[in-house]
Protein 1
Amino acid sequence: MLGPQSDPSAPAGVDLTRPNAARIYDYLVGGTANWTIDREFAQGIIERIPLARDMALANRLYLNRVVRHLTRLGVRQFLDIGAGVPTAGNTHQIADEIAPDARVVYVDNEPIAIAHAEILLNREGDPDRHVMISADLREPDDLWREARGTGILDLDQPIALLMVAVLHFFHAGPDGREVGAESVARYRELLVPGSYLAISHLTDDGVPGEMVPQLAESKRVYANSVNNQLLFRSRPEIDALFGDFELLEPGMVWTPQWHPEETGPTAPAISLPTPEYSVIWAGVGQKPTARFEVR
C-alpha cells in the first residue's frame, strides 16, 4: 500500500467530486498529482486487484522501453496522446537520455494533467522541443492541426504516435457509440509512411482465470464512480487497431515481454507472477513504405 499524502492545490474549475482515471493511474505509479478521492478509489481497486500497482507500473515501464527502443532506431519525434499526469520517466525524459534533440508533443484533455505537464515542462523541459496541448483523441483532424500548430513536430516526416493505456477507456462519439477504433484508423491515415504506432490496452482475453472476476468487478466500479468507463478488447480486436502496420518484434505481447532489455537501470521492481498477470496487451507497428511493382 502506498503511504498517505496531502492534497495539492487543484487548478480552477477542476471537478474533485469524482475520482479521475488519469489521477488514479498517477497514484498507482507513485505520482503526487492526485487527490484523496482518487487515492481512496485506487485503494479500493487494489483491494479488488492486489496486483493493480504492479500492473500499472508494468505499463509505465513498457512506455519507457518503447521510447528508448524507438529513439535507438532513429525516431526523433513523439506524439503522446492521452499522456495523463506527468510522473517520473516521461517520454521526453527517456528520449533525451539517448537523443538530446528529440521532440515531444504531449496531448490530453484532463485539466490537471495539462496543468501539471506545463509545470513540469516549464521547470525542466525545452520550449523549443517539448509542449503539452489540450485536444481530444476522438477528433483526430483537430488534434493533428493542434499538434502541427505547435511547430515542434514536422508531421510530414515519420513520427512515433504513442497511445499507451488510453484506448481501454470508452470514447463516446456524439451519438454515444464507442469511436476509439475509428479514431485510431484515422490516425493511421494521417501518419506518413515509416511512422510508428505504439499501443497498450487492458484486456480480459488470455489473462489468468482468477483475474477475470477481479477485472469484471473493477470495470463495474469504474462505471459507477469514475468519469471514464473501462472497455476491454480481445487480442484480435487490439491487433486490428494496427491495421496494415507491420508489428515490430516481438509482436503483440504482454507489457513485461516487450523488449525487456530496454528496461532502465533505475526502473522500479514489479512483482507479477507471470507476464499475463499484467493484463495489458502491447505492441508497436510501423506504417509500411510505398511498394512499387516491378514489371
Note: The domain at 21-259+271-286 is CATH 3.40.50.150 (Rossmann fold).
Protein 2
Amino acid sequence: MKRRQFVAAGLALSALPAWAAPERFARGLLWRVTKKGIATGHVYGTIHVPDPRLAELPPPVRSAFDGARSLMVEFLPDAYTKERFAEAAMFQDRQTLEQTIGAEDFERALRELRPLGLSREFVNKLKPWGVLLNLRAAQAAPEPALDAQLLDLARARRVPLHPMEGVEEQIFTFDELAMASQVALLRHSLAHREEILALAQRTVDAYLARDLAAIWRLRESYVARHPEIAEHQAALTKRVVLDRSVVMAFRMQRQLRLGGSFVALGALHLYGEQGVLALLDADGYRATRIY
C-alpha cells in the first residue's frame, strides 16, 4: 500500500477545551523565565499550523531566539518517527475505517482527504484519530509552521535540539483515546467541516493578537453550541493539553536550569492555572511577558 503524503500532524491543534479557565497568563506568546541562580531562558507559544501571516517570526521572538544556546520543542520529527507515527495511525488487523464510521462518513472522509493524494485503500486502514489529524493538513497553506521555522534556524546555527516527548508518547496520547470518542469526534468534524475551518481561522486571529484567553473562549463557545461532543472533547483535551502540560513543565526544567534555553510549545499549553507557566511558577520560576 503506497503511503503518499501522509501527514502526522502532531498534537497541538486537535483539542477544543470544554471548561472555563481562570484568567491567569491570559495574554502573551513570549515569556522570559528566570530563577535565582539560573541564567534567563524563554518560553514561546507557537501555533501548529501554516498560515501566510506566520511567515516570519516576530522581531522580539527572533531576537530572543538568536541569543539562545539551545532549542527545546515538543517533538523532533525524523524519517523513523514519521513512519512510526503513520504506522500507529493505521489498523493492524482486518478492521477498516468504513466499518468503524459507516459508509457515508467514510466517503465524506475520502473527499476531504483527497488533497493529500491518499489512496482509498490507505484511508480505509486509518484509525479515526489518524483521519482527524490529517483533515487539517488537507486544508493547510504551503508556508512552514512556526515550529518548522525554529528548527530550520536552529539547525542553521547548529544550536543543540532537545525534544520534550518521544514518538511513542505522542502515539499513546491518541491511540489510548476511547474508540467511541475517536468516532464521535471524527463524525462531528466531517459533518461540521466549514464551521470548524472558520473556528480555526478565528483561532489564528486570536493567536496573532496574542490573546490566549480568547483562544480558549472560542473553543468553549464552540463546544457549548455542540454539547453532543462535550464529553468526548473533554477527554481529548485532558490527554492532549492538560496531561501533557504537566510532563512538559517538568521536562523543560532540565534545559531551563542550564540557562540560555529557548522552549517552544503550543500556545494552548501556556494558559491558565493548569498551563506550563503556572506550573513553572509553582516550582519557583518567574515568568515575565515580553511579547
Note: Residues 1-22 have pLDDT under 50 and may be disordered.
Protein 3
Amino acid sequence: MADPIGIDFGGSGIKAAPVNLDTGEFSADRERIETPEKSSPEAVADVMAELLERFEGHDSPVGVTIPGVVRKSGEVASAANIDKSWIGTDADDLLGKRLGRTVRVINDADAAGLAEARYGVAKGREGLVIVTTLGTGIGSALLYDGVLVPNTELGHIELDGHDAESRAANSARERDDLSWEEWGKRLTKYYRALERLFSPDLFVVGGGVSKHGAKFIPLIDVATEIVTAELRNTAGIVGAAALAADRAAG
C-alpha cells in the first residue's frame, strides 16, 4: 500500500502530501490549492480530487482535517471559517465517494495533537498532554498516554467573562496590538485555567505563531511544563495521514 495522504483543509488553502509513517515526514512535495470562495462540501471535494491526482498510488487511505467538530461517525458538527453547509454532513462518506478511496476526517487541532504525540515533542510522554494551537482561534487536543480524546474545544472556556480565544488567541494579540509581555499575561491566565481544570503533565503550544515561541512561551507563568510544538505547519497533514492509516489497518 502506498503511503497514506494527509489533506489539511483550512479557510484559505487546502494542502496535501503523502506521509512516511516511519518518520512522520512527507514522502513527496506538498501541494496546495486555494480554498474555493464558496467552501461547500462538494466544491472542496472537487479541489481535493484535483490534489490527489498529483500523487502516485490510488490505493492509499486519505485523512482530512476539518476546522470543526467531527463525530466518530464522520459527521461534521460545527464549521469554523468554512461554509456552514458542512454542518450535518457525513464527510467520511461524501469525500470517500468523491475521491474513490477510504477517507477519514478529523478535527484540525486533534490532527496536530496526534502528530505531536506520534512524531513530535510529545512522543513517548505519559500522562495527560494538552496541545493548543494559537491562531485565529485556539484549537486544542487532549492526549492521555498518547491516546487522543477528540473534540475538546478548549479555546471556548470562559476567561474573564469572555470566550477564551477572543482574549488569548494570536488574533487577539494582533487585534489589540499587544506586546509579547502583555500577551504572555493573558496566556498565563488561560493556561492556569486549564491547569485548574485538568492538571496536565505537559502543555504543547502550536499554531503559526509558535515559530516565535522563544519570545512568549517563557513569559507564560504556569507550574506545568510548557514547550513549543515541533511539527508546526506539517502537523495537520501528518496527523490526518496517521489517523487514516490507523483506521485502514483496524
Note: The domain at 123-229 is CATH 3.30.420.40 (Nucleotidyltransferase; domain 5).
